[in-house]
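User: ok so my PI wants both of these folded by tonight, can you help

Assistant: No problem, let's get them done. Here's the first:
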Amino acid sequence: MDLKEIKDKELWNSFVITANPEFYSFLQSWEWWELQSQEGKKIVRLWIYKWNLLIWIMLVIKNYAKRGNYYFIPHWPLLDWSIKEWISSILNQLKSMARSDKMSFIRFNSTLQNLKINKDFFDRNWFINAPMHEHAEDTHLLSLLPSEEELLQNIKKKDRYYINRAIKEWVKITISNSDKQIEKLIDMHYTHSKRENWKNKYSAFKKSFIYWLYKIFWKNISTVSASYNWKIESILMTIKFWKTCVYYIAASDIINSKFSPNYLCQWEAIKNAKREWCTIYNFWWVSPDENPKHPIAWVSKFKRKFSWFDYSLIHAQDLPLNNKYRLNYLVETFRRIKRWYYYKKPE
């Protein structure tokens, strides 16, 4: 079993596409890792070979923090998980690399579905539940295979009303990545994050992060806004990778709640993804259930109004390597409890 670093963008992206995983997103693209590098993260892209056969690829982010340094492997790896004997060899080499880099633990944020059989695999390899998530684990997916008419009919009547009413009220939709539109997205994103009440408050993305998103994913980003009387009331960003489109950043300042432009803005983003030949529209992060006390219950309720189904990934798994991990566990547990987060148990 050999672990080799890869520096070929086309080979990387083509492997992800041909692997045809059940769940994937732009987090698995080469461009996402370019973004991590621009953000100052130290990364290693690995190919894993067995008898000269490529069986696994993954990206390792080296995170350095006062509470403990660790390897972070987000939405990876892609491999045939049924061949268990290969995995133990890979994990042994990965642990050896981590110890050489003086890491306290390894964190997997896998794309495996949240099933007991998958959790049992991690348990057998000495992983434990991470105290805190790092990326979306519970998502809401919409199939774009039906016609636009069918997709609209699948939305409840009372929610379709907002879309139709906004159209009748001449709400203007703009799909553009112009500098003006990008600046408006950033401005509203920051204002919106500060305006929410204490429980629904969220941390806005750094401006530099959003700018680098546009620079690196430029061809696959769409910015959609809805305005009324020349004022933008709703704006969002989607990122496409292969046939999946992810609803990633959004903000609103709704004045006309009777025909909330949020609905029309989201509907036009869905239609735009379908025009770009996507087959899945991923609403990204939602709460694990419909409990109104969850920190993102308010936005999750909105996302679920567009029908179809939730898809749950297994919660982040940590592999402790030394006693320093205890500090990280305590710090992140405190943060999770303070923010009221909880996670869905495997089915």
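One down. Here's the second:
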Amino acid sequence: MFRKTECPVTREEFLTQAQGLPITIGAQNLLAQVKEFSTGSFGWHHGDKLTVKVGDKSVKVQVGLTITVIGSKDAPAKSEPAKDAA
């Protein structure tokens, strides 16, 4: 049985510190935006309509890109306060 991957950042850290993620599709540079998904996970998202070349013709495409941080659905909201050593 595989161990569940833990997210190394809290939800608060991600949402306050993450920045847009540059992506390239064909020759077009885009920016995926930081997003908290309705599922409770977080990551980046980009949706757009683009034109790309196929041979000598241009075709319209629809892009739906979701980049999810693994384990983010179970990430704590905030950092836990440090426990005092007894």
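DSSP finds one helix and four strands in the chain. Helices lie at 11-17. Good luck tonight!
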